[in-house]
Design a protein that fits this description.
Number of domains: 2
CATH topology of the largest domain: Methylamine Dehydrogenase, Chain H
Radius of gyration: 29 Å
CATH class of the largest domain: Mainly Beta
Strand order of the largest sheet: 1-2-3-4
Largest sheet: 4 strands, antiparallel
Shape: globular
Order of helices and strands: HHEEEEEEEEEEE
Distance between the termini: 81 Å
CATH architecture of the largest domain: 7 Propeller
């Protein structure tokens, strides 16, 4: 019994060496033949060697991405100015809003302009996690330190000091009636605009 187990371990080790050689060959893009271990390390007769395996299928090779210049032809356009975008929302006026790790960004795509809002503009935190546009066109932003609302060109922010149950707001949704729903670290929070 011990002999059979030892033999299985030997074959497993030989297969492991062969598999690692094959993986190295595949990772190298199949451009160079796989390294073959010394004859003493090869599997016993009747067991396939790495060189006996069929070549990999063409789909096993990593596809080459198209050049950047070809992207507009594919319909994709990248808008620069911010990184780490966590959420986007389309406004009725044609603006694209984005919640980012550096605040809130607004692109006026028709005019080709870009504005970034941060704590200097009234946000409670520059770490914005989500964004939503209300039916009235105002913008709501979920941040690490509370929620912000932009209406009539000005930001108003709400934190636990204003009665918000949790400062860390990860997601936000605005219902058709204007009710605001927040996903926070401690659960779902609802704000009713009809209650003062």
């Amino acid at each position: 019994m011990a002999e059979a187990r030892g033999g299985s371990r030997r074959h497993f080790g030989e297969w492991l060496v062969a598999g690692l050689c094959l993986c190295a060959w595949l990772l190298a893009g199949c451009k160079a033949p796989p390294a073959v271990p010394e004859a003493s390390a090869l599997p016993s007769p009747g067991v396939p060697r790495p060189t006996d395996l069929p070549p990999p299928l063409p789909s096993a090779q990593a596809p080459t991405p198209p050049p950047t210049a070809a992207l507009p032809a594919l319909g994709w356009t990248r808008y620069l100015g911010v990184n780490e975008v966590h959420g986007v929302a389309w406004a009725q006026d044609g603006a694209l809003w984005a919640a980012t790790s550096g605040g809130v960004a607004r692109w006026n795509l028709a005019a080709g302009t870009f504005v970034q809002y941060t704590t200097d503009d009234g946000l409670p935190s520059d770490s914005a996690y989500d964004i939503a546009v209300a039916p009235d066109g105002s913008v709501w932003v979920a941040t690490l330190a509370g929620v912000s609302h932009r209406a009539d060109g000005a930001w108003a922010s709400y934190t636990p000091a204003d009665g918000l149950s949790d400062a860390s707001v990860q997601s936000i949704a605005v219902a058709s009636g204007g009710d605001v729903w927040l996903g926070t670290s401690s659960g779902v929070v609802h704000w009713d605009p009809g209650v003062e």
